[in-house]
From TrEMBL:
This is Leucine-rich repeat-containing N-terminal plant-type domain-containing protein. Residues 36-78 form the Leucine-rich repeat-containing N-terminal plant-type domain. The keyword Heme does not apply. Keywords: Glycoprotein, Leucine-rich repeat, Repeat, Signal. The lineage of its organism: Eukaryota, Viridiplantae, Streptophyta, Embryophyta, Tracheophyta. Pfam families: LRR_1, LRRNT_2.
Length: 232
């Protein structure tokens, strides 16, 4: 009897495994694979003050249909029938609070626009781990303070980085010059000092650095002590 059972299992066990694996894949694609993006938006809503009720009136999670979060204000999805966030555009909503680190659960997000709000505190030091695939990051016209994280240099897909009109201080990390895809970079109207980065493929103007107390180099005036002629 045991030999017969082993023969049957031996003949059909691979098919059983394949069927089980297929069921797991189907169940993932239908529900759990997008649960992280729903958790992402729930966390963002919970962490921010929303005095004008832009999120409260639109971000209703009492729904189970696929793609329902794609109809939320400021949310753009990869596909309208899939709960997978592509871009988050929450500009000019009067939002208050810190940078919403729960955004890390939107694992496929490529664009983040939190500009023209009342967000404050530091930009997280591990920003590249929170939004590793972002191509556009706009945090301009807020009240962010502290230094510009060096980890932004690890967001290697960045094309647009706007940090202007904040309270950022210290030096701009020279590592940002390694962002090979950057086309737009602005840190005007902050409290930054020291030499500006040397970008490989971007033409950054004086206006992008304007109204900082002590920036120098690049399109700005030479830094104190620097020499125009190379040293041997």
């Amino acid at each position: 009897m045991a030999i017969f059972v082993n023969m049957v299992l031996g003949r059909h066990f691979p098919k059983i495994l394949i069927s089980y694996g297929l069921c797991l894949l189907l169940s993932c694609s239908l529900s759990s694979c997008t649960e992280t993006d729903v958790a992402c938006l729930k966390s963002i809503k919970a962490s921010l003050e929303d005095p004008f009720n832009y999120l409260k009136s639109s971000w209703d999670f009492n729904n189970s249909t696929e793609g329902y979060i794609c109809r939320f204000t400021g949310v753009e999805c990869w596909h309208p029938d899939e709960n997978k966030v592509l871009n988050l555009r929450l500009s000019d909503m009067g939002l208050k609070g810190r940078f919403p680190v729960g955004i890390q659960n939107c694992t496929s997000i490529t664009g983040v626009d939190l500009s023209s709000n009342n967000l404050d505190g530091p930009i997280p030091d591990n920003i590249s781990a929170i939004i590793p695939f972002v191509t556009s990051l706009d945090l301009s016209s807020n009240n962010f303070s502290g230094g510009i994280p060096k980890a932004l240099a690890n967001c290697t897909y960045l094309n647009i980085l706007k940090l202007d009109h904040n309270q950022l201080s210290g030096q701009i990390p020279p590592e940002l010059g390694l962002l090979a895809r950057i086309k737009t970079f602005s840190v005007a109207n902050n409290l930054l000092t020291g030499p500006v980065p040397t970008f490989q493929n971007a033409n950054i103007s004086r206006e992008d650095y304007a109204n900082n107390p002590g920036l120098c180099g690049g399109p700005l005036d030479p830094c104190p002590g620097s020499s125009k002629s190379p040293h041997t």
